[in-house]
Design goal:
By secondary structure, the chain is of the alpha+beta class. 58% of the residues lie in helices and 14% in strands. It folds into two domains: 181 residues, no CATH class; 169 residues, no CATH class.
Length: 385
């Protein structure tokens, strides 16, 4: 309470010092929430792809005259590879109409899985509202939550895909992966959409066209080696999911260094304002220090008084900065969610408490030097000033 009373005695100086700390903490809260969300996305995607390799059929292969024979041979060789537990065909078609095609985030795709692939992916994709499509059912769709928000569709609505009407029967649970903006339709319907996606000037697709294989690896299989072997099969391409994850993590590391560096610079500017404020406070209260020492105050009590004031400034600035930062990220995320865009921020107690503790500690350290000077001031010298 004494620290607050002393700070209130010089309101203008206290306000601007607290504001400097608050700005730095606001920046730290925002970039910390952004970094946490990005790391969550990478972790979820890595977990989702654990033990799975996507083998994509090259477009030139799909449109070649011998497409059916080439894909059949590739499928046979793929299932025979060491480390493959199961492989199932799938269809992936880009969604290029409506609001979801222009949203911020992963591209919106239409997926079609046969029954065996749906069984393999059931653990990855959970329906939060409605139901999944039943075997043999046609012209129904299960959509991701971001897609549903972008297109303003829900269970019971009708969705148009390339001029075809689909009844929405389910909305998937949020996963922070590419499936949040996806549409899953029955496999035969996806094949029809794939045929429509081929330009009329191109050769016709083979009967029962597919665009990729979902490959599930055996336990302890070398996923990287398997991906390289798949890429050697004529007509197929594949990437090691671990290489992709490592590349993303490396990029995130650089991003973290840049944004946290910028936030720390803002905080250091605030820390210098704390040093300035406390130095002036010591100068203005030199006679008070002398009187307190003359009546028995110790160096430790003087030091604690001024460090306490500095820490209080940090606590006030930290609290204000965190509240403003959380308000900013909540407003941005709410707007993003309403438009079906990727939500970029993760509000967590770890970010808020870490930012608050850092503000208090930095301010206390910044105020230590002026406080130490005050504590070491001889009472006779202080009383003459």
């Amino acid at each position: 309470m004494n620290a607050l009373r002393d700070l209130a005695s010089r309101p203008a100086r206290t306000f601007f010092t607290v504001a400097g700390i608050a700005i730095g903490i606001l920046a730290l809260t925002v970039v910390g929430s952004l970094a946490e969300r990005l790391h969550t996305i990478v972790t979820r995607s890595t977990s989702l792809n654990t033990g799975i390799v996507f083998a994509t059929i090259q477009r030139s292969t799909m449109l070649s005259p011998n497409a059916r024979q080439t894909i059949t041979r590739a499928y046979t060789r793929l299932r025979a590879l060491d480390g493959v537990r199961a492989a199932a065909p799938e269809v992936i078609v880009p969604y290029e109409s409506g609001n979801a095609s222009g949203r911020f985030g992963p591209p919106s795709l239409v997926f079609g899985f046969p029954d065996q692939a749906r069984a393999l992916g059931r653990q990855m994709l959970v329906v939060a509202q409605g139901r999944n499509s039943a075997p043999g059912e046609r012209r129904v769709a299960v959509v991701g939550p971001d897609f549903a928000a972008a297109e303003h569709v829900g269970v019971g609505d009708v969705l148009a895909l390339q001029g075809n009407s689909f009844a929405v029967v389910g909305v998937m649970e949020k996963t922070f992966t590419i499936f949040d903006a996806a549409v899953i339709v029955p496999f035969p319907d996806a094949q029809d959409l794939l045929r429509q996606d081929v330009p009329s000037s191109s050769d016709a697709l083979p009967p029962d066209p597919i665009s990729a294989f979902l490959v599930v690896t055996k336990p302890n299989a070398d996923v990287g080696l398997l991906a390289r072997r798949i890429a050697l099969i004529d007509g197929l391409s594949a990437r090691d999911p671990r290489e992709v994850a490592n590349a993303v993590r490396s990029t995130l590391g650089i991003f973290d260094a840049i944004v946290f560096g910028a936030a720390l610079i803002a905080l250091l500017v605030g820390a210098f304002s704390v040093v300035n404020t406390m130095t002036i406070a010591v100068t203005e209260r030199t006679r008070e220090i002398g009187i307190r020492k003359a009546i028995g105050a110790t160096d430790g009590s003087i030091l604690l008084t001024f460090v306490g004031e500095a820490a209080t400034i940090g606590a006030l600035g930290g609290a204000v900065g965190i509240v403003l930062g959380l308000a900013v990220v909540a407003a941005i995320d709410a707007r993003s969610a309403a438009g079906g865009n990727l939500q970029l921020f993760a509000i967590s107690p770890t970010v808020a408490l870490g930012a608050f503790a850092f503000a208090v500690a930095l301010s206390a350290v910044a105020g230590f030097v002026p406080a130490l000077g005050a504590a070491r001031l001889p009472p006779t010298v202080a009383l003459r000033r």
